[in-house]
Amino acid sequence: MDRFSWSNGLLEINETLVIQQRGVRLYDGDDKAKLDVGVVLLSTHRLIWRDIKNHECCISMPLSQIIFFEEQAAGIGKSAKIVIHLHPPLVNKEPGPYQHSKYSYIKLSFKEHGQIEFYRRLTEEMTQKRWENTPVSQPISTGTGYFTTYVLLSSVSMQGGRTRAVGIVGIERKIEEKRKETDKNISEAFEDLSKLMVKAKEMVEVSRSIANKIKDKQGDITEDETIRFKSYLLSMGIANPVTRETHGSGTHYHMQLAKQLGDMLQAPLEERGGMMALTEVYCLVNRARGMELLSPEDLVNACKMFESLKLPLRLRVFDSGVMVVQLQSHSEEEMIASALDNVSEKGSLTAEEFAKLLGLSVLLSKERLLLAEKMGHLCRDDSVEGLRFYPNLF
Amino acid sequence: MHRRGVGAGAIAKKKLAEAKYKERGTVLAEDQIVQMSKQLETFKSHLEEFASKHKQEIRKNSQFRVQFQEMCATIGVDPLASGKGFWSEMLGVGDFYYELGVQIIEVCLALKHRNGGLITLDELHQRVLKGRGKYAQDVSQDDLVRAIKKLKVMGNGFGMIPVGGSYLVQSVPAELNMDHTVVLQLAEKKGYVTVSEIKDSLKWEKERASHVLDHLLKEGLAWLDSQAAGEPQYWLPALFSELTSRDITPEEANQMTP
């Protein structure tokens, strides 16, 4: 780390930025450098590092200092690194963060990845050695040199009244402008959002008042009115307070959905032995829709209506809490009988083996085995080798 | 269900109630419902105006999404309750989170044979981002957490366990009580844990430690390295760093237990 010098981070006239990567911490040999995480920049001539929070803290080193470098793979809790071995420091080297170091190598630790590309670019630059072809003036230190170069850069870039962004300063200025504009947009958005929320809150209060009145029976409301009220709540995303117990959460929307599902799921259910986990259904349906997706609650509420709409599907909740949609035609007895048959035939089965036999998911085949066990047809052998089911001979 | 408000007697009763309430100056529920529908139309147009100006903000800016969600929660509104809700339809928040839900389920399913249904929020985040491709919107861990909370209603055992400053996401209905959770937290530093470590750190009896570890083995959440130097080590695939493990097939996974 004693090969680095303080720098203002400005590029020379013939110097070009090759790549930069944020989230990089420096190491003096194997020890963490007494610097925070920052941005590392590779130019045609130098390796530059700047503190992310404190832009004044900027250091650089000529690429000619590098002997060779290698990658160090990441480990558990450790980021990937590039280890750079260095020539001894130049006699007339400008002061830097370290006066002296016992190490002749440094490491770049890539906390936000990017090491692969950086390594590739560094290899390119070290192979091409472009700094040898386009020599720049002495490395600029803070002081008069800074102003001279800055003025030089600005005057070069003022053409036709338009300021062209040159070098790091230009890039930073652009980023700052963009950030200011974004900030302005954001504060306007937040302001508008707050105003909107005030109005939304009014709607919530109105709905609460209505719900209370329904509870206290202040006026009779018809079934139609109840359904309308529920759909208003659905539009606003307000939880259904009183009416849920008496009328359920379903609305016309859910009824329609239930019918659609009834059509759509017939074939997939048949293919999967008559049963699908609700999460599977969720993925299947939403992938098919592409947009205007269903929320998990929409799906559950629609499935709850299968029975009342006399559709040939049922929503079922197992003891474990797993929720499935199953074909009405696949009765419980059939499932248990099939489980018993398969287990008897093979002598014993685990959930994984059963799943493979039937082409079901492991989760659902386990539920079937558990169900058969609950009914007394199978018994279990529970060991660290897994859960295995046998016909119940007791 | 009997239909209310039908028949001469009921009509008369209703007229009486109306009269009584109008006298006292209170408004009946039915009248309020009619009022509400008008107010709803007004609100809808406000939301449309907001959407036309700021819809992009919600999709691009994860900080803004967090603010939005928190404000909704404060006033008692769930913008993700239904795809048919105004919020979802007009701001597009719904599709963003519901699609994320699909991606989360798919990642968890794909890795279940390896980690037993337990995955760190970090790994889940990385894999979801990878699956979304270069040009998809950025997704934050807060987004994932909210999407997962919604998935819970589908009953498939989605849950989150606080571990080492972040979370483990559970996607199978395995029974995990406080004892299991505490052992998972202990294992987080190195990716594995031993009976002695449990006894030393948690001051448990050997039987209690073994019981918990056996359960984790059975559920496929832990693998046993009985050839480790010293004593057997119980490794948690969920905690393996992505870079130091290779993907194994389901067949290999089945052969892993002792």
Structural write-up:
The complex is a heterodimer of chains A (394) and B (258). By secondary structure, chain A is α+β, with helices and mostly antiparallel strands. Chain A has eleven helices and 17 strands. Chain A has three domains: 5-148, Pleckstrin-homology domain (PH domain)/Phosphotyrosine-binding domain (PTB) (PH-domain like, Roll); 171-236, no CATH class; 251-391, Arc Repressor Mutant, subunit A. In chain A, β5 (46-51) and β6 (58-62) form a beta hairpin. Chain B is mainly α and 258 residues long. Chain B has helices at residues 8-24, 29-60, 62-75, 86-91, 93-115, 121-132, 141-151, 178-187, 195-202, 206-218, 250-256; strands at 118-120, 159-163, 166-170, 192-193, 223-225, 233-235. A three-stranded antiparallel β-sheet of chain B has the order 1-3-2, sandwiched between helices. A three-stranded antiparallel β-sheet of chain B has the order 4-6-5. In chain B, α5 packs across α6, α5 packs across α7 and α9 packs across α10. Chain B is elongated, with a radius of gyration of 26 Å. The relative contact order of chain B is 0.08. Classes of the chains: A alpha+beta (394), B mainly alpha (258). At the A-B interface, α3, α4, α7 and α8 of A face α1, α2, α3, α4 and α5 of B.
Task: Write out key terms for the chains shown.
heterodimer, A: 394 residues, alpha+beta, Arc Repressor Mutant, subunit A, 17 strands, 44% helix, B: 258 residues, three-stranded antiparallel sheet
